[in-house]
């Protein structure tokens, strides 16, 4: 089994910054892409950013210019640096990973971490 464990969420004032981390643990797995999604109350889950193993990044419109995704392949960890946060960024942030394990390739999700931005 593979688990994704997120950390780094919390409460921050508008204009502030947070850094999220997500580490994959388990055995016999290989990670392709890793990334972040978010879901605000009453809204659909949306892409924040993802990064391929080779370093190609993709950002959702809300993240462009403010958020930066990075990754440490040796540690099976992905990070999301969020700057210039605004109340509209308030959501549960989910880590996502495209993983091959024992000849099965599928998406895994973390449990989510709450980010709240106060005005």
Overview of this protein structure:
There is one protein chain. This protein is mostly beta strands and 119 residues long. Helix content is 0%, strand content 62%. The chain has no helices and 11 strands. The strands form 2 sheets. Strands 2, 4, 5, 6, 9, 10 and 11 form a 7-stranded mixed beta sheet that branches. A 4-stranded antiparallel beta sheet has the order 1-3-8-7, with no helix packed on it. The chain is elongated. The N and C termini lie far apart (40 Å).
Radius of gyration: 14 Å
Which blocks of ≥5 consecutive residues have pLDDT under 50?
none
- Report the major sheet: 7 strands, mixed
Q: Please tally the helical runs, counting DSSP H or I stretches of 4 or more residues.
A: 0
Total beta-strand segments: 11
The overall pLDDT average reads: 97
Taken as a percent bin, the fraction of beta residues is over 45%
Order of helices and strands: EEEEEEEEEEE
What is the straight-line distance between the termini? 40 Å
Gross morphology is elongated
Percent helix range:
under 10%
Which structural class should the secondary elements be placed in? mainly beta
Key terms:
11 strands, 119 residues, single chain, mainly beta, four-stranded antiparallel sheet, elongated
Write a compact overview of the structure shown.
Helix content is 0%, strand content 62%. The chain contains no helices and 11 strands.
How is this fold's topology laid out?
Layout: E1 2-7, E2 10-13, E3 18-26, E4 29-39, E5 46-51, E6 57-59, E7 67-72, E8 77-82, E9 91-101, E10 104-109, E11 113-118
Parallel strand pairs: 2-11
Antiparallel strand pairs: 1-3, 3-8, 4-5, 4-9, 5-6, 7-8, 9-10, 9-11
């Amino acid at each position: 089994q593979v688990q994704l464990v997120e950390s780094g969420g919390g409460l921050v004032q508008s204009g502030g910054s947070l850094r999220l981390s997500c580490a994959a643990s388990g055995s016999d797995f290989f990670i392709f892409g890793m990334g972040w999604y978010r879901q605000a109350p009453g809204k659909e889950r949306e892409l924040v950013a993802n990064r391929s193993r080779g370093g190609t990044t993709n950002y959702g419109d809300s993240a462009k210019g403010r958020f930066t995704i990075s990754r440490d392949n040796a540690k099976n960890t992905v990070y999301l640096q969020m700057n210039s946060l605004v109340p509209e960024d308030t959501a549960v942030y989910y880590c996502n990973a495209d993983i091959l394990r024992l000849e099965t390739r599928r998406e895994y999700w973390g449990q989510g971490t709450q980010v709240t931005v106060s005005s």
